[in-house]
Amino acid sequence: MRLTDVTVLDLTRLLPGPYATQHLADLGADVIKVQRPATGDEARAMAAGDGPDVFSAVNRGKRSVTLNLRVARAREAFLELAADADVVVESFRPGVADRLGVGYEAVREVAPDVVYCSLSGFGATGPNRDRAGHDLNYVGMAGLLDMTRAERGGRPAIPGFPVADMAGGLFGAFAIVAALLDRELGDGGGEYVDVGLTDVVLNLSQAVAPRAFAGEDPHGRETTLTGTYPCYDVYETADGRYVTLAALEPEFWAAFCEAVDRPDLLDRQYAEDPTEREAVRETLAETFRERTRDEGEELLGDEDAMVAPVYSLAEAAESDQARERGVVVGEDDPRVGFPAVPSGGLPESDEGLPELGEHTEAVLREHGVDEQTVAALRDG
């Protein structure tokens, strides 16, 4: 799992694109973040105020170059960088990269085998291609928000994580690596990859989508995986915390019933009568209300009982599981790490955050941009 010979030009900003290229950087790719001078990625300013520190989360180990792509000399310099690049990633609205002179066709002229990935809210085609949006818009239009309700018919709840941004970035990284593999194993040509964040969220619906295709209109709390049945639900404990019960398979439901000494519930796992179903749910609610969250976890310590605590994000990050798996790394300055454990380990990488434009001159010179152009870009 090493991309140490891969060079990525990263024109993205905010969260989805930088998250995609952060994965590539974690795998050893040389990610060169190309941003406009003075302001750069808007996430820098968000981190400086009271907003989320998105920038430091998804820009570790990248090199920073500033170029004003509205200036011809800067566009030429970018294309000189692109001539040596394996991957270009952009997250402008569809058509903007082309207008700036750094779209796929322009890059392909200097790098015929480039993998060029565009990330946008709705993709480069379709009636919504030009719409602006953010994560909440995308999850709303992809059906996820309607499926995320605390109670039947209740108000849709905003997911705790920006699902479209993160899943879209992850899928973008996956598509890029797949295109690189195809280039190596196939005819050696490049490829254009168009990723729409809304499409990716809709793709996540596959466990419930068949009901929609069959003419039904499933909503939150109305499917097996959103809380229709009491064997798959969230329950409050005596200390005002919560646990999850996810005993979908009969053998796990049997293990749970044994752990709480309720053999009478065995054949009521998937009760079809709503009244009986709610009676089972209330029985389970009473069972969990008698114990604190941690007491419940101890009592139900059977590994097959399918009961687990609902952690706060801080608790999840501090857990022994997250630390041992390397999902959270670092002591003085902890961060969320790469979510896979390759047997060969991950390549060593620079974990520092680049200053805006810190590597401009060095990168331009590495890629053959002449001294006169470097000086002109620096001065203007």
Tell me the major beta sheet. Answer: 6 strands, parallel
| Corresponding CATH superfamily of the largest domain | Crotonobetainyl-coa:carnitine coa-transferase, domain 1
Low-confidence stretches: none
CATH architecture of the largest domain: 3-Layer(aba) Sandwich
Order of helices and strands: EHEHHEHEHHEHHEHHEEHHHEHHEEHH
Number of helices: 17
How much of the polypeptide forms β-strand, as a percent range? Answer: 5-15%
Mean pLDDT: 93
**Strand-pairing-aware structural class:** alpha/beta
**Gyration radius, to the nearest Å?**
25 Å
How many domains in all?
A: 2
- Total number of β-strand segments? 11
Distance between the termini: 41 Å
Helix amount, in percent?
Answer: 25-40%
Please identify the top-level CATH class of the largest domain: Alpha Beta
Write the layout of secondary structure elements.
Layout: E1 7-10, H1 16-26, E2 30-35, H2 42-48, H3 54-57, E3 63-66, H4 72-83, E4 87-90, H5 96-100, H6 104-110, E5 115-120, H7 135-141, H8 163-185, E6 191-196, H9 197-203, H10 209-213, E7 232-236, E8 242-246, H11 250-259, H12 274-289, H13 293-299, E9 307-309, H14 313-318, H15 320-325, E10 328-329, E11 335-336, H16 360-366, H17 371-379
Parallel strand pairs: 1-2, 1-4, 2-3, 4-5, 5-6
Antiparallel strand pairs: 7-8, 8-9, 10-11
How would you portray this structure in words?
By secondary structure, the chain is an alpha/beta fold. The chain folds into 2 domains: 7-204 and 350-379, Crotonobetainyl-coa:carnitine coa-transferase, domain 1 (Rossmann fold); 224-310, formyl-coa transferase, domain 3. Helix content is 39%, strand content 12%. It contains 17 helices and 11 strands. It has helices at 16-26, 42-48, 54-57, 72-83, 96-100, 104-110, 135-141, 163-185, 197-203, 209-213, 250-259, 274-289, 293-299, 313-318, 320-325, 360-366, 371-379, and strands spanning 7-10, 30-35, 63-66, 87-90, 115-120, 191-196, 232-236, 242-246, 307-309, 328-329, 335-336. Strands 3-2-1-4-5-6 form a 6-stranded parallel beta sheet, with helices on both faces. The protein has a 3-stranded antiparallel beta sheet with strand order 7-8-9, with helices on one face. Strand 1, helix 1 and strand 2 (30-35) form a beta-alpha-beta unit. The longest helix has 23 residues, at 163-185. The chain is elongated. The two termini are 41 Å apart. The mean pLDDT is 93.
